[in-house]
Amino acid sequence: MKWTVKFTNRAAKQFEKLPSKVKDALLALILEIKNESPYRANWPNFGWLKQSACYHCHLKKGKPTYVALWTVDKKQVTVEVIYVGTHEKAPY
Questions:
Q1: Domains of the chain: total
Q2: N or C: which end of the chain has fewer CB within 10 A?
Q3: Strand 47-49's sheet: what is its strand order?
Q4: Domain containing 23: what range?
C-alpha cells in the first residue's frame, strides 16, 4: 500500500533550513514511509508521543540532534509531517 506524505507549511519552511545531510535523511525516511508504512521501527528512537499524538524519530544524533514528527491518518492513508528540526525546539 502506498502512503501519501504531506508537509505542514511550518514543516516545509523548516525543511528548507536543514543541513544537507539532515535533508537527505528526511527524504530517505519519507521514501520509506511512502513505500512501506509510517511505522518506522528501524529508525533511531522511533516511537509514539502520547502527549503530542504523533510519531517521531531521530534524523541525526549528536549535538544538535535533529528529529521529525508526523501524524498518521489510517482512513486516508496519509502521513503529515508536522515538525523537522532540532530536538530542543520540538513541540513535545
A1: 1
A2: N
A3: 4-7, 78-86, 66-73, 54-60, 47-49
A4: 4-75
